[in-house]
Amino acid sequence: MYTEDDFLQLSGIQHFAFCRRQWALIHIEQLWAENVLTAEGRVIHEKAHDPFFAEKRGDVIITREMPIHSSELGVSGQCDIIEFHQDDVCGVSLHGRSGKWFPLIVEYKRGKSKINDCDRFQLTLQAMCLEEMLNCGKIEKSCIYYGETKRREYVDITDEMREKARKMVCEMHDYYNRRYTPKVKSSKYCLKCSLYELCLPKVTDTKNVANYIAHALREEGVF
C-alpha cells in the first residue's frame, strides 16, 4: 500500500502508454510545452470541470471533477464526469442520497477515437480507483467523450486491460523512484508531440547519436 506522498498522477498513464519518455519528461523532469493539440484538450476539459456542480436527472446523479485515488496502486487524480445510475442490486450507498447507485465514468478527450489504448488505459485506471474507494463491484463499462465527433465511445474494462494498467503503474513507480528518463524511440507521432523541441528525438535517438556527433564535429572542422 502506498502513502499519499508516493501517489503518482493518474492521468500520467495516458502519457506513459503513448511514450514512456514523454511521461518521464513531464512527470520526472517537470518539463512542459503546449501546442494546438494540448490547448484543445485543455479547453474541452475546462468545459467538463466544475467541482461544485452536481445534479440529479431522473435515476442519474451527475458529478464533475470528483477526486479519486488508489492506495494499492499509488495514484490519484480526478474524473471529468461520473454518472451514478440508480441500481438497487449492484449499487452502493452515497452520502446524502437514498437508494443504491453504480458509477459510469465519462472521460473527456479532444479529437476522436484512437487505434491505440492510451485513453482506455486511463479510463481503466479510473475504474480501478473507484472500485477501491467505493468498495463496489467491478465497473465493467465506462466511456470516453471525444470532442471532434461529439460522441461517447463505450469501453469494456476487461481483466486484460486491468492487468496491463497495473503493470504500467508499477513501471511508472519504478522509473519515478529511480528518476529514470528512457531513451527516445522515435516514431511518426513525434512531430505531433508538444515536447518535440525539448525531447529532440532526432538528436537523442540512440541509433543515431554517434552519427550525429560525428557530423557535428565535421561541421565544426574538428576532423
Relevant terms:
223 residues
Describe the structure.
The protein contains eight helices and seven strands, in the order E-H-H-H-E-E-E-E-H-E-E-H-H-H-H. It has 223 residues and is an alpha/beta fold. Strands 1, 2, 3, 4, 5, 6 and 7 form a seven-stranded mixed sheet that branches. The model is unreliable at 35-39 and 206-210 (pLDDT under 50).
Give the gist of this structure.
The chain has 223 residues and is α/β, with parallel strands linked by helices.
| Number of beta strands | 7
Would you identify the regions where 5 or more consecutive residues have pLDDT less than 50?
Answer: 35-39, 206-210
Name the average pLDDT: 84
- Count of alpha and pi helical runs: 8
Percent of sequence in beta strands: 15-25%
The secondary-structure element order is EHHHEEEEHEEHHHH
Give me the Rg, rounded. Answer: 20 Å
Helix vs. strand class: alpha/beta
Tell me the helix content: 25-40%
Shape: globular
Distance between the termini: 56 Å
Write the layout of secondary structure elements.
Layout: E1 8-9, H1 12-18, H2 20-27, H3 36-48, E2 54-57, E3 60-70, E4 75-86, E5 101-109, H4 118-134, E6 141-146, E7 151-156, H5 159-178, H6 196-199, H7 201-204, H8 209-219
Helix pairs in contact: 1-2, 1-4, 4-5
